[in-house]
Structure prediction request, 308 residues.
Amino acid sequence: MKARVHVTLKNGVLDPQGKAVHHALQGLGFDGVNDVRQGKFIELELDGTDAAKAEAEVKEMCEKLLANTVIEDYSIELA
Amino acid sequence: MKSAVILFPGINRENDAIAALEQATGTKPVVVWHGETELPKTDIIMVPGGFSYGDYLRCGAMAAKSPIMRAVAERAKAGVTILGVCNGFQILTEAGLLPGALMRNASLKFICKNTHLKIENADTRFTNQYQAGDVVDYPVAHHDGNFFADSETLDRLEGEGRVILRYCDANGVVDPATNLNGSQRNIAGIINEAGNVLGMMPHPENAIDPLHGGTDGRNLFKSLVEAAS
Prediction:
C-alpha cells in the first residue's frame, strides 16, 4: 500500500519561499497567479492491507516526524 | 564543573562549543554521540550548531528524534542547564523542549555576519553576568533562524520574561529595520518555562576570544558557571 503525505504551511504562517517562487513566475510573465504556497510531498511504501490501520500509523508519523505541527498542516492519501 | 556537548552527524561547531565551555568551566566537556542513550552526570549540556542530518526534512527534525535526545529531555525535566545554539536551538524546538519553530530567513539568504542583540532579561542562569538592556555583539550564521510562534505563545513568552535576546542595532533599537531574519518580534533567543533551557540563533561561543573580533559571548558562559556553582 502507498501513502501520500502533503505537508503545507499553516494559513497565517508566512512563506518566503512561496513568495520568491511567485515573484519568479511573475518575472516569466505568468500574471494570473494570485499566491504561491510551497510545501512537501512524501510518498511512503507500506506493509499490510488494512487502510484504517495504515492511516492511523501514517498520522502518527506525521505528528511525530513528517510535519512540524507548530507551523505545518498535513494531509494523508492512501492508494 | 562538568559539561557535555551533544554531537550529531553534520554538526560543525562542536569545537567552538567545547572551547567556550572549557574556557568558562576550566574543564574540557564530555562529547556525547547522538546514538548514545545515556548521558554522564553534568551541570551543563550544550547542543551546538551545524547542519545535523544535512537539514533534511526540516532543520533539527531528525536530530530531535535521536536516541540521546530522550536522555537530554530527562535532564531538562530534572532542571539541568541546557544551551542550544543555532542548529541546537532548532533541535530543541523540534524536540518540544522549547516552543515555536525556526523557519527560512525572510530574505531567503544565508546570513553570516556579526549582529547586535539586546539582553532582555538578565535574571536568568544564562544572562546573570549581563544587565538587562545591554547590547552585545555575537556572530550569526544561519539560513533558518526566522523564529515563529502563534501570537498567544509570543504574548506568553514576553509576559513571562522568557524572551532573552532580540535582534537590534548598536543603540539597542528593536524594530522591523533591525530584524535580522524576519523573526516574530525580533526574537533571537528564548528560555523554557522552568528557565533551565535556552535556545538562541546567534553564536556566543564564537565571541569568546579577541581573535574572534570580540568577547561579548564570554559572559553568557560565565553566567552558566555562576548559576551552577
User: Anything to note?
Assistant: The domain at 3-228 of chain B is CATH 3.40.50.880 (Rossmann fold). Chain B is about 25% helix and 25% strand. The helical segments of chain B are 14-25, 61-64, 67-78, 87-94, 151-159, 218-228.
